[in-house]
Amino acid sequence: MRRTSCAPSQKRRSSAASDSGRTVGRSVWQPKGTTLKELSMAETRSSSTVWLLGKTEKEIICGALPTKGHTLQKMVYHHLQEHHTVRESAKLSVQAVCAYWEKARIPVQRVDSCERKLLKLYDTYKLVKKNRTKTFENYRVKEQMFKDDLQSLFDISPNDALEKMTNEEDKAFLIMQREDPSSSRVGSVDNTLAVKENIKRIRLENEDERKKKHTTETLTAMQTVPSTSAVVVDESEIVSSDSGDNEFELQSPSSAKQVKKAPIKVITPAIVATLMAETRSSSTVWLLGKTEKEIICGALPTKGHTLQKMVYHHLQEHHTVRESAKLSVQAVCAYWEKARIPVQRVDSCERKLLKLYDAYKLVKKNRTKTFENYRVKEQMFKDDLQSLFDISPNDALEKMTNEEDKAFLIMQREDPSSSRVGSVNNTLAVKENIKRIRLENEDERKKKHTTETLTAMQTVPSTSAVVVDESEIESSDSGDNEFKLQSPSSAKQVKKAPIKVSMSLSKEERIQLILLVGNRSHREVAEEFNRLHPDRAPITHSCVDKLAAKFRETGSIEDKPRSGPLRTSTDDHTATASLAHFMKSPKKVSSAVVC
To answer: What's the burial of 210, exposed, middle or buried (CB within 10 Å: 0-12/13-18/19+)?
Structure first.
């Protein structure tokens, strides 16, 4: 404790002061064992007056909802007087403020959001306090604005608080507090409303206790009765609940008996496990509602349906995000195939769904923020969930031939709820089945023909050509002149009019192939060439590809020159070349001349 200077007459040593342990000297005295510095620091700490906030108190004392000044005073008290950290002080202050809002029956934001709001206010206060000694006019203006703002309400209610509230008096109170906190006060307790709330609370507590007791007795009965025998409950053991629903209470295992005639309820561990799994599966997700395992819709799935199924696989079945997207795309593609509408590749559909899921996570992350643009984006995303999850290619309408399917796709793109998938068109289904069966038979016949041809070529020695009788050539069912080569056992060497199977193309055949190419595909050219030349081995479209590529590259159908020595075989071309070479150099022995 500090004292001021005393008069000379007062500077006397007294026995009482000596006995009490005080040392009087000059003008300062202090208790025994306490230094002057400690006394000065204690006195400084006890003076809880803070710049611009006034005297800080441990408790918030106000007749209405706390203002920003009240909340900041409490936070500074915890920080300076009780030596808590800034974050701990903010947490304690928010707890005290939330107690006022709960008494007023007004919903509040999450605790972490309230703490961030208070820390932001505290940072602003520190910045204003830092600039209090500066002489610029704008600092004085900001200081006055912050001082006036401390009288406003520290609003921690969500944006949709008025929509959530049902009591009109509470709504009017919140509106008045937002406009002017001093305009209204918290009145006395509404006894009528308090009685109603207590009755409701007691009823809910009794109902929860009854359900817990029923669950405990059921589990006890399951544990005591062997799992191989089911617990059969007689009609007399079913007790209707007080609430009027059809719930029943299971008696103790001693009263449970095995009744052979007219069993009413059978409880087994398998049934209980199924019910528990079903309870876990009923999950409600923000903005999507209840997620289901199957997509239930009368038309093509929307973005909301697809996202619900993906979230179900991810949260309920614990698949990865990519696996969930794959399973969801498979289910969606089944709907599009039933509607006979072409779809994109599976990986493209998965990328589109993953992009939609990322957008959902971003909107969900920002749902607690109070800025208006986040609410606008949230509403836009919510409206977009009602639109079609379009996985058709850009040229889907050009590929489709049925006019009804085209009109259905256009209507679904505009509004998925405007049209529904009708019953099966039996006439069209019969036509599609006939076409499918015909194509399958044709493919099977071609595969069989190709297999027999390759088998015949592999089994016959290369020195002797496979000779096929003219009677063995059969016309195909499609009307073209394709033939079926018989097995090697039926192939025989005929001396009269043999038909040789040659694998190489002659010069005339190559020219004919180049002329047939035109604007047609190479597969069609190969089929046309095989039809025009039934007396030779059929060619494939790869042969046409190579010949056309060589003609485009070199401008010729001849083979490219090969490396190595010159050819020694004698035909019309090589004989003429050898003779010309000999006439040019008769004295040289050319390696091209054949003796």
So the answer is: middle
Strand partners, 232: 266
Give residue 215's domain range.
Answer: 193-234+247-280
DSSP state of 267: E
Is residue 467 within 8 A of residue 493, CB to CB? The reply is yes
User: In this structure, are residues 149 and 87 in contact, taking their beta carbons and an 8 Å threshold?
Assistant: no
Are the CB atoms for 1 and 39 separated by under 8 Å? yes
**Structural tokens at position 316:** 């309920």
> Does 290 lie in the same domain as 256?
no
Cα(465)–Cα(492) distance, integer angstroms: 10
Let me know whether 203 and 158 are in one domain.
no
**CB-facing half-sphere around the CA of 219: CA atoms within 13 A:** 8
Angle at 222 between CA 217 and CA 224, to 5 degrees: 95
Shared-domain flag, residues 273 and 308:
no
Question: What gap in Å lies between CA 181 and CA 586, rounded to an integer?
Answer: 124
Whole-number pLDDT of residue 304: 92
Does 275 lie in the same domain as 291?
no
Q: What is the pLDDT of residue 127?
A: 94
Q: Does 73 share its domain with 162?
A: yes
CA 122 from centre of chain: 38
**From the first residue on, what is the mean pLDDT of each consecutive set of 10 residues in the chain (595 residues)?**
40 39 40 50 61 88 91 93 94 94 92 95 94 91 93 94 90 92 80 83 91 88 58 44 44 48 57 60 77 85 92 90 93 90 93 94 90 90 92 91 89 86 66 83 87 73 42 41 42 44 74 83 89 88 89 81 63 60 55 41
> In Å, how far are 220, 231, 237, 317, 350 from 269, measured between CA atoms?
12, 10, 20, 22, 39
What backbone torsions phi and psi does residue 233 show, to the nearest 5 degrees?
Answer: -105, 130
Strand 49-50 with 54-55, pairing? antiparallel
309 within a domain of the structure (yes/no):
yes
Both 127 and 164 in a single domain? yes
Q: Which of 365, 393, 418 is the endpoint of a domain?
A: 418
Q: How far apart are the first and last CA of the chain?
A: 137
pTM score, whole prediction = 0.34
